Amino acid sequence: MAETGRKAERVRIKGRVQGVGFRIWTRTEAERLGITGWVRNEKDGSVAAFLEGSDEAVSAMLEALWSGPPGAVVGNVVSEAAEPIEQPAGFRIVR
Fold first, then answer.
1. Which of 9, 26, 39, 71 is deepest in the core (most CB within 10 A)?
2. Out of 6, 23, 32, 40, which one is annotated catalytic?
3. How many domains does the chain have?
């Protein structure tokens, strides 16, 4: 069972988010906030992520995704609550 105060979100980020270092930036921000999970590019040009951490950290990350790294133009961030699955430590870029 996940610890109290933890939450998870599945996220899809659309806009100019590929080819601008979005995945590396996401990993850096997630690690800074203590979030576990993953990020990947999708074939439709969007970026998908699974975020798990404290309520505050995940909320901060969701807000940060609206800006992204320099060069990104975020058009939309859609998130939906997910069941925390106690991800292994760290945040990964996956294919």
1. 26
2. 23
3. 1
Decide: helix, strand or coil at residue 77: strand
Question: CA dist 31 to 13, 44, 51, 52, Å?
Answer: 19, 26, 11, 11
Lowest pLDDT segment from 18-22, 32-36, 67-71, 85-89: 85-89
Q: Select which of 6, 12, 40, 41 is catalytic.
A: 41
- Over residues 49-78, the pLDDT tens digits come to 999 999 999 999 999 999 999 999 999 999
Give the per-residue pLDDT at 6: 87
As beta bridge partners, residue 40 has 48
What CATH code is carried by the domain that includes residue 71?
Answer: 3.30.70.100
Q: Is 93 part of a structural domain of the chain?
A: no
Asked about 76 being catalytic, the answer comes back as no
Residue 45 neighbours by CB under 8 Å, 6+ apart: 14, 17, 18
Distance CA 86, CA 17 (A): 27
